[in-house]
Amino acid sequence: MNASTDNGLLSPRLAVAVFLVFAGTYFLSALVRAIAATLSPTLSAEMSLTPGDLGLLAGGYFFGFALTQLPMGRWLDHHGPKRVVLAFLAMAVAGCVAFALAGSFVGLLAARVLTGMGLSACLMAPLTGFRRWLSPAAQLRANSWMLMTGSMGMVASTLPVQWLLPVIGWRGLFWALAALFVLAIAVLAWSVPAWKPAAGVPAPAAGGPDAGYAHIWRHPYFRTMVPVGFINYGGMVAVQALWAGPWMVNVAGYTPEQAAAGLFAINLSMLLAFWTWGVVNPHLARRGIRPESLIGWGLPLSLAVIVAIAWLGPRAGWGLWALFCVGSTFVSLSQPAVALALPPQAAGRALSAYNLVIFGGVFMLQWGIGLAIDALSVFGWSEPDRYRGAVGLFALCCVGAYAVFWRGWRRIERDRAATLRA
């Protein structure tokens, strides 16, 4: 397929087609990522899983994600999105098949890790391509709308999955997902442009100072975004993909069907939030409103809500969890901002390094919240109180991460003002 115009940007028609193809694949990956919350009552009953086991199983997906991020960033910059995503999706097919066949917790966990590895390129590959194929304003919109399609996948992981379970079972569901990923491989192979060296942009020399990750980790902007990426962004995904569901069942007293409906509403709220960001981001960029400023002023909403959830306990239902997740979407602006802060030839490594931060946070928080729920039993607390205590600890981490971000953000603002005065 003819990839681009003379300046390297995709034509509008081709840009839409490429976006839709990647978005469809990311929809499926987000469905698989979030499905643990809906399946948690079934898997807990069938496999006798504790909250710690459940957190580890859900977090195994993100552990697989984290394992691949750094090498994947190099491969994306060198080989391009198409070749990388096709190779990784083959692992995802194997992971879904292994999950469908698993007969023990260990088998489920191994399959979950493999699936996470295979789906780890479904967002990074398109974002790397968009860094070269789209204008900066279009990148912000495309990033938000990719996340919107991820929310669509999470919506599909709730009530639709709950309806399908009595019909085909959770094993049949994973066989169907494996077949859909095979179809995605075929469509991506046909439609995504080949990767060509960027005009006028030299590739980093092998072994040179810009070939690895050191200059990315040292970049002041990158380091400013690390705390909120790990704790606040990672925590939002951990809650959305797992812990909101068990909270509704074990603390708020929902039935599994009511919890699935609550998760449906939470993910629908996220979908609308990301759609809104996609609409307004180009306008905000043209007005010179920077992502770090939006994060600085908007993220405190989520901090107030998570403290309220821990305080209210059984009175905190899906509505407050939806408000927490929507308030946390401010930090999603950090992903394209990090890519734009570094050179185009380092886009894959910058995005993958930051994604490692985010999904490392997801893994640690999904597992950590489960461990905290188990550990607080030493005080003789009831199950609802143990959940409240674990969420309270998570809230403290969120506030601390935001405080560290605030300090770095104000330093960036001071440096920018000093440069303008000079």
Description of the molecule:
- The protein has 422 residues and is mainly alpha-helical.
- The protein has a single domain, classed as MFS general substrate transporter like domains (Growth Hormone, Chain: A, Up-down Bundle), CATH 1.20.1250.
- It is 81% helix and 0% strand.
- The protein is built from 16 helices and no strands.
- The chain has helices at 12-47, 51-79, 81-101, 105-118, 121-133, 136-156, 159-191, 214-218, 220-250, 256-286, 291-298, 300-312, 318-328, 334-341, 347-375, 383-421.
- α1 (12-47) packs antiparallel against α5, α9 (220-250) runs antiparallel to α16 (383-421) and α12 runs antiparallel to α13 (318-328).
- The chain is globular and about 60 Å long.
Task: Please outline the helices and strands.
Layout (H helix, E strand, L loop, with lengths): L11 H36 L3 H29 L1 H21 L3 H14 L2 H13 L2 H21 L2 H33 L22 H5 L1 H31 L5 H31 L4 H8 L1 H13 L5 H11 L5 H8 L5 H29 L7 H39 L1
Helix pairs in contact: 1-2, 1-5, 1-6, 1-7, 1-9, 2-3, 2-4, 2-5, 2-15, 3-4, 3-5, 3-7, 5-6, 5-15, 6-10, 6-14, 9-10, 9-13, 9-15, 9-16, 10-13, 12-13, 12-16, 14-15, 15-16
